[in-house]
Amino acid sequence: MQREYPDRPIVTVAVALRDGERMLIVRRKNQPRRGMWVLPGGAIELGETVHQAAVRELREECGAEIKPLRFLGVEDRIFPDKESRVQYHYVLIVLLAKYKGGGITASSDIDAAEWVREEDLPRYDIPDEVLRILHRAFHEPL
């Protein structure tokens, strides 16, 4: 699957992972948004359900075991290059999930993973649309 300059959108899952009053955020190692803090997740593989992809991605990306709870929405992430060509295009299916265990470590497409409380969010470089999801997820019942 070609991520840069794809011929169609790439369907992904983004997980708002809660552990009580804390949420997991990760710092991107690669483009797009290298160095920014976002929700963990990744591309859905052929034959995989959204929930299966969420469980696999969180295990691979940061070592977390999760229980997917419910959908929070679907969002587009389209990143044009300097010539206005679509360099990246993702469709994010956003899930709320509950943390079940596992040691949180950075691997794969991230270089850091941290648990944060809602009041901690201003200290991080988080895109506005991700902040909106995080604020909503902090107020969802588990």
Structure, explained:
The protein has one domain: Nucleoside Triphosphate Pyrophosphohydrolase, CATH 3.90.79. The protein is 17% helix and 43% strand. It contains two helices and seven strands, in the order E-E-E-E-H-E-E-E-H. Strands 1, 2, 3, 4, 5, 6 and 7 form a seven-stranded mixed β-sheet that branches. It has 142 residues and is an alpha+beta fold. It has helices spanning 50-62, 128-138, and strands spanning 10-19, 22-28, 37-38, 41-43, 65-80, 86-101, 110-116.
List keywords for this structure.
single chain; 142 residues; alpha+beta; seven-stranded mixed sheet; 17% helix
Number of helical regions: 2
Mean pLDDT comes to: 95
Q: What's the domain count?
A: 1
CATH fold group: Nucleoside Triphosphate Pyrophosphohydrolase
Q: How is the secondary structure organized here?
A:
Layout: E1 10-19, E2 22-28, E3 37-38, E4 41-43, H1 50-62, E5 65-80, E6 86-101, E7 110-116, H2 128-138
Parallel strand pairs: 1-6
Antiparallel strand pairs: 1-2, 1-4, 2-3, 2-7, 5-6
